[in-house]
Known about the structure:
alpha/beta, Purple Acid Phosphatase, chain A, domain 2, 6-stranded mixed β-sheet, 4 helices, 13 strands, globular
Amino acid sequence: MKIAVISDIHENRRNLQMALNEIEERGIEQIICLGDFINPGIARVLADSKIPVFAIWGNNDGDVAKILNIASGEGSNLKMSENTFDKLELGGKKIFITHYEDFAESIAKSGDYDAVFYGHTHNKDKKNIGNCLLLNPGELSTHKTGIASYAIYDTETNNAEIFDLENSFNTKWEDVDYNEKGRFVGKK
């Protein structure tokens, strides 16, 4: 089974739509979103996806009630978790997903999961810890790194490839600063 992993959309509908188009072309069966929609309009795009989307909450998702109404609406292909983390079993693999990086590595070291996916930092990262894949697909927003990216996880190989979107729309904020953990620390 091939699963797309996206994170940190931050209202960048254009990049989200481009990523969804590429994901559909790749014959993906499931999308996992690791949070940070910013507004319900992004939830609407995900709900209208041809591919089922399972999403967790981030720290920047906007109007929770509207997002839940969209996700629970008739014909919606978006399912929202109740938390900023969740556990899934897809394609015979145990997957832990979280918005935050703080405990992702510890979960990967536990040996309880085949893969751990996290977002929040906006930085692409992929490594193996024992037999567990630890993955951050990067950001779709581009406002921190300037690069829009997503990942495709293959349950058969327990591996992933990170793809950069060509011709992405850059929303990078030039006048803000982040610490080494990707957290906003103020204006430059």
